[in-house]
Design goal:
- It is built from no helices and eleven strands.
- By secondary structure, it is mainly beta.
- The strands form two sheets. Strands 2, 4, 5, 6, 9, 10 and 11 form a seven-stranded mixed sheet that branches. Strands 1-3-8-7 form a four-stranded antiparallel sheet, with no helix packed on it.
- Strand 4 and strand 5 (about 45-50) form a beta hairpin.
- It starts with a strand and ends with a strand.
């Protein structure tokens, strides 16, 4: 198991940018597929983006394609979600998730595919 801690959330105006981070500790970061999900009040938890352990494969929700970018830094044991052109509907608590895998291109979009979760960081986009 790994421990995940998100940071970088905050309040931003529509059209602005924000980068949230997920620091991973407890085990080697190497063989973990990483994902970002979000949960807004009154809505289901929603997949945002995922990146394979190799970093060579990524997966995005249609709602964020072209605006959000997921990346990972193995040296820092950290995963990032760069969010540009933010919209009020992006307002949510953003959660980082991790799943151990040997599959080179594994980038699951379902919450049940992940075994470890962070506590979340609030992102609020004002109109």
């Amino acid at each position: 198991q790994v421990q995940l801690v998100e940071s970088g959330g905050g309040l931003v105006q529509a059209g602005g940018s924000l980068r949230v981070s997920c620091s991973v500790s407890g085990r080697s970061f190497s063989y973990y597929a990483m994902g970002w999900f979000r949960h807004a009040p009154g809505k289901e938890r929603e997949f945002v983006a995922a990146i394979s352990w190799s970093g060579g494969s990524t997966n995005y929700a249609d709602s964020v394609k072209g605006r959000f970018t997921i990346s990972r830094d193995a040296a820092k044991n950290t995963v990032y979600l760069q969010m540009n052109s933010l919209k009020p509907e992006d307002t949510a608590v953003y959660y980082c998730a991790a799943q151990y895998t040997r599959s080179y291109s594994y980038t699951p979009s379902t919450p049940s595919a992940y075994g470890s979760w962070g506590q979340g960081t609030q992102v609020t986009v004002s109109s």
